[in-house]
Design brief:
Elements lengths: L1 E4 L5 H8 L2 E5 L2 E5 L3 E4 L8 E5 L7 H8 L4 E5 L2 E2 L2 E2 L15 H9 L2
Antiparallel strand pairs: 1-5, 1-6, 2-3, 4-5, 7-8
Length: 110
């Protein structure tokens, strides 16, 4: 995912995010930790993050952002498994229809 935060993030806050957060999920507390979180070199500076997650808890990125003292203004899913959005060279508003087999092959195969 790529996320635009409401305010700049510093390295100390980024390290805290990398450590994960205790978040209530379906009436139990879970420690949710991203696989990776990095600042993206994009305007506005120090507000865009690249976030890789494994578990996929509902609203996971927004919940982690809130715990870290931020809100997410924009969230873009750029990859599912091995399928990357950039591989399709789509313009805003464009889409591609894929069959189940095409989706399965793109996500699970390289």
């Amino acid at each position: 995912y790529e996320a635009l935060l409401n305010i700049e993030i510093n390295l100390k806050q980024l390290e805290r995010w990398r450590g994960g957060f205790d978040i209530e999920v379906e009436d139990e507390i879970k420690n949710i930790k991203p696989l990776a979180v990095n600042i993206i070199d994009r305007e506005p500076v120090n507000q865009w993050l690249s976030i890789i997650i494994a578990e996929g808890v509902k609203r996971e990125i927004r919940l982690m952002a809130n715990k870290a003292g931020f809100s997410v203004e924009k969230l873009i899913r750029v990859k599912i498994g091995n399928m990357k959005l950039e591989d399709f060279n789509l313009k805003p508003g464009e889409y591609v229809k894929l069959s189940f087999n095409e989706i399965n092959n793109k996500i699970f195969n390289k």
